[in-house]
Design a protein that fits this description.
By secondary structure, the chain is mainly alpha-helical. Helix content is about 55%, strand content about 5%. Strands 1-2 form a two-stranded antiparallel ribbon.
Length: about 280
């Protein structure tokens, strides 16, 4: 089926008047929201067709990493040729979330349950997962549909026998999504790929010696990569250099795990990390 984007007027009206429209997000279908918005804007439609094809099969709202992987493969696989400039456009992903994927977004992010319990966080959840509300980079992995495309875009390896091998690693480890892929230096898939490969290689090495590279160490490594970005132009580094530097740093951190803890990463993303 053709993906449809949300018109600019509809998008801005929804976001700026979210308190007015919020109760309609608890409905099982988008019909009431769409009709109210069309009436308020005095228009026949709030959507426009794109030339891009969205998968016909409904996405699974399960939070299991295997089901997340299936959703990523479905969305990214069908829209692999989407230009980055289009993939950054909030209108596309908000349109898909409100249109084709209404049921998926509400169930995957427990929107209906939050309404039932009168949870105060429901407005923020709606804004985060239906729209872009976390800045230009974090929003890519917070919007419920764009995250599926971007997780594929930043980890897909066309030259590998299993192109999604890194995607499986990332979806199984929340730390990669929050601490790596939500940061500006991950815009280049080569950088994020070398980082993931380096951490996994270091994990295999230190695990054999009884060491551990877990979420705290991953955050330190992301801070270290950010520091490297202040010294080097990461995009211009020779292939393999980021891998080597991150691998060596990861092994060093694991070997000194019992030393006094370093300061918390100053650039650590704030927010509901465990809700990714």
């Amino acid at each position: 089926m053709k993906a449809r984007y949300l018109t600019e007027n509809a998008l801005e009206t929804l976001k700026h008047s979210i308190d007015t429209y919020l109760p309609l997000f608890k409905e099982e279908t988008n019909a009431a929201l769409v009709e109210k918005l069309k009436a308020d804007l005095e228009t026949d439609t709030i959507f426009r067709d794109t030339k891009y094809v969205f998968p016909d099969a409904p996405l699974s709202a399960s939070k299991a990493s295997a089901d997340e992987m299936a959703s990523i493969e479905a969305v990214f696989g069908s829209m692999k040729d989407l230009p980055n400039a289009v993939a950054m456009d909030e209108r596309l992903w908000a349109g898909l979330a409100i249109d084709i994927c209404w049921d998926y977004v509400r169930k995957r992010w427990d929107i209906a349950e939050l309404f039932e319990t009168n949870d105060d966080s429901v407005k923020n959840k709606v804004l985060d997962h239906f729209f872009y509300m976390q800045g230009p980079r974090r929003s890519f992995t917070r919007n419920a549909i764009s995250r599926l495309w971007w997780l594929g875009r930043l980890t897909y390896d066309e030259g590998h026998a299993d192109p999604y091998h890194r995607t499986r690693v990332v979806t199984a480890d929340l730390g990669y999504v929050v601490d790596l892929l939500e940061r500006n230096f991950s815009n280049n898939p080569r950088i994020s790929s070398e980082f993931v490969d380096a951490v996994e290689a270091a994990r295999a090495e230190v695990d054999a010696a009884g060491g551990v590279i877990a979420r705290p160490e991953l955050r330190i490594l992301c801070k270290y990569l950010n520091m490297l970005g202040g010294v080097y132009i990461l995009d211009s580094l020779p292939e393999g250099m980021i891998f080597q530097k991150i691998h060596d740093k990861a092994v060093e951190i694991a070997r000194h795990k019992d030393d006094p803890a370093p300061d918390a990463a100053e650039d650590e993303p704030a927010g509901d990390d465990d809700e990714i």
